Amino acid sequence: MFVHVVKSKIHRVKVTGAELNYIGSITIDEDLMDAAGIISGEKVQIVNNNNGERLETYAIPGPRNSGEITLNGAAARKVSKGDVLILITYCMLTLEEAKQFTPSLVFPNEENNLLK
Question: Which of the listed residues 6, 14, 30, 70 has the most CB atoms within 10 Å of its CB?
């Protein structure tokens, strides 16, 4: 049996942009992606703390140390610049693996940069 568990979470990042006329996805500062163990193209659940919206898309890397969090394509309609988001990825593990697994939790600062 396999169970879905939280693989990683980037907690409370601010939206820096919304690009409606882009193909789709969420652009995430590559430093944040690395810290959370998120790879390019990985499915990401987005929870908007400001309006309650929840959606899924895929991650693409943004410039390192930029703090960029940009929703692209149709998802741009679900956010406003400055909204606070939680970004979550999941994985499937056996029940025994899941009991031993520890997710990557990232808590950026107010500028969406990693706390040193």
Answer: 70
